[in-house]
Each structure stands twice: as C-alpha cells, then as structure tokens.
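hiii, so i know i said id send this last week but things got crazy w the move. better late than never?? heres the sequnce for the chain we talked about at the cafe, plus the structure i predicted for it. fair warning i was half asleep when i ran it
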Amino acid sequence: MGKVAALPIVGMMMTECAGAGVIILSKAAMSTGMSNLIFVFYSNALASLILLPTSLAFHRSRPPLTFSVLCWFVFLGLIGFVAQFVGYAGINYSSPTLGTAMLNLLPAFTFILAVIFRMETVDWRSSSTLAKSLGTMLSISGAFIVTLYKGPALLLTSSTDILSHKQLFSQQSNWVIGGILLLVYCVLASSSYIIQASVIKKYPAELTMVFYYCFFVAIQAVVVSLIVETDLSAWSLKPKMRLIAVVYSAVFGSTFTIGVTTWCLHRAGPVFIAMFKPLGIIVAVSIGVTFVGDTFYLGSLVGAIVIVIGFYSVMWGKANEEKVDGGAEAKSLATSNQRVPLLQNSLEEI
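okay and structure toks below
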C-alpha cells in the first residue's frame, strides 16, 4: 500500500524535473542561434509522431471526429502555436528560472478567465473565493517583482563576467521583455485550458486531442517558419544541442509528461498534481546555476516566493470549494433518500 501511495509522488516529481529540463534545454538550443519558430515545429512534429500510435492504442474506440470538433482542434493548435512561440521567446530573452516561476501563474489566470466566462462562481462571503482571489493577486504581484526587479546576484557562476553599464542596461531590458512575453504565454495557456475543458466534453479522448493539438501546432509553425526563415541553415539540427533539445522536448515534454500526469490525475486528483508545480523552480535554479551558467537574483527569489504563496492560496481555495460542494452533494443525496424510502428499499432488494 505504501509503495502504491508513493508512486504518484515519484511520478509528479519526475514530470516537474522533465518540465524544467525542457525549459533549460530549449534555452540552451536557442542560445546556439536556433529559431524558436523552428524549435516549436520540430518538437511538435516529433511529438505528433510519438502520440499518433500511442493515442490509437489507448483510445481504440474513439468518438466520431466531426467537422465542428476538427475546427476546435485547429483553433487550439493556433493558440498553442502562438503560446509556444511567445513562451520560448520569453525564455530566450530571460532565463529558465524566470520561466519556471511564471508557470505558477497558470492557476491564477485560469481562475480569472473562468470567472469572465462564468465557469466559476464568485461568492465574496466564501473563504474559498477570498483565497482564490487573494492568491491570484499575490501571483500577479510576484510576476511583476521577478520581471521588473532583479536586485543583487545571489548565486554566481565562475563564467559570470563583470558587465559594463551599457551591457547591464541591455540585459535588464531583455529580462523585462522576457517577463512580459512569459506573462502573455500564461494568459494564452490558460485560455487553452478553458477551451480544452469545453472541447473534451465533445470529444472525450484525451490523448487523441493532444495528438491533434501537437499536429496542428506543427503545421502552423512550419508554414510561418517557411515564410520567416528563408536561410536553409536555420533548419539545421547542428550543433548537437539542438537535436538533444528537440528530442527531449518531444519525448519528455509531451509524451512522458502527459502520460504520467494523466495516470497521477486518475490516482490522486488535480489538486495533488498542482501541488508539485513550484518544484520546477528549485530544479531550474539548481540545474541552471550548476550546468548552464545562469545567475540567480534576489528579485527572482522574492518574486518566486510570492508567486508560490499565491499559487497555494488559489489551490487551497479550489480544494476547499470542491470539499464543500462534495459535502453539500452528499447531504442532498441523503435527504433525497430519506424522502423516497420506497426507492431505497427497492434498490436494496435488487
């Protein structure tokens, strides 16, 4: 029993490490001059090739693919393409540490969009609503801290050079640009989650939907890349770091992460999965400073702490809300059974 209970914990730790690895390797690949457009195409094309047989094996009886659902898949692919393009550009301008910190904004932005589209009810007398609202404000405040304030360096590598005033100003500007792009990515990714929640009701085959998502992202990425990247050398997977990053992103960033997360979701629920998100910050800082040569700043530490507090506040509010709703539903069912004793007796006889 102990081993079975520990498996979801191990699985989620592995997926967060894998996710941080994707961010770090994509940064390394783009630092060699690889276009983020071409990186998006290669990684999603390879992920599609992996997910096609996987989805066919997993969903042997699939719902019919109507034209309406296909249009939704194309639209999801468009949002995914723009989100990934903007997200990788943000990582390229900033650092893996900032990228992983910003990912913790996803629950906050998802909550805001859910309220806008009336998928979430807001009751200001409820502690759950107050916790989610406060957590959302804290997360966004933390995002502004890590984007606009660097502060002194806390962890330096031996390769760090003393920069001139002009270089430092340029680096600070790129950091702000990267933070803004990552904020845009979080909004787009949250929008994608809202749409996926609606589409999955019409087409309840998760892996097949993810395959179409990656497939249409790859199609749109290659079309734009062929227009923008006219130099054929830009498509090269040399040096080897580019190939490693593409393969790793496709295998571990898509197939492995989706498979393990889905398994853990069925075993332990969505709140359990969300609890492990801040782990990616620790992994990214450790690997980034040790192997990539990143510098860890005070602003990143303070902002990440504020974002994580906001993240857990949103998740606590959501978990408490589900608990209250579950208790109310059970109470309603018990009251209903008391009102119809003949039905209860009939069921017991059966």
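btw The radius of gyration is 22 Å. thought thatd interest u
miss u guys!!
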